[in-house]
Amino acid sequence: MFGLGMQELIIVLVIILILFGAKRLPELAGGIGKAIKSFKKGMSEPEEIDVTPKKPASESKEGIEGKKE
Question: In angstroms, rounded to a whole number, what is the distance separating the alpha carbons of residues 36 and 44?
């Protein structure tokens, strides 16, 4: 896993434990779990179809020309 051995992983976990404290670790893990779950859900859902009507080309050109003056 990323070229890290068991000793390196333990050192990283100890540093994380010192930085965040034992009480915040479950909160962080829960937040990461929810983020991963919503990411997977978003990737599996089909894309939304845009149904807003598009302006005709003549209207959009008039708006651009009016701004140049």
Answer: 12
Strand segments (E) across the chain: none
In tens, the pLDDT along 18-65 reads: 888 888 888 888 999 999 999 998 888 777 777 788 877 665 555 555
Asked if 17 and 25 count as a contact pair (C-beta separation under 8 A), the reply is yes
For 15-31, give one letter per residue: b (16+ CB within 10 A) or e: eeeeeeeeeeeeeeeee
Distance of alpha carbon 29 from alpha carbon 34, whole angstroms: 9
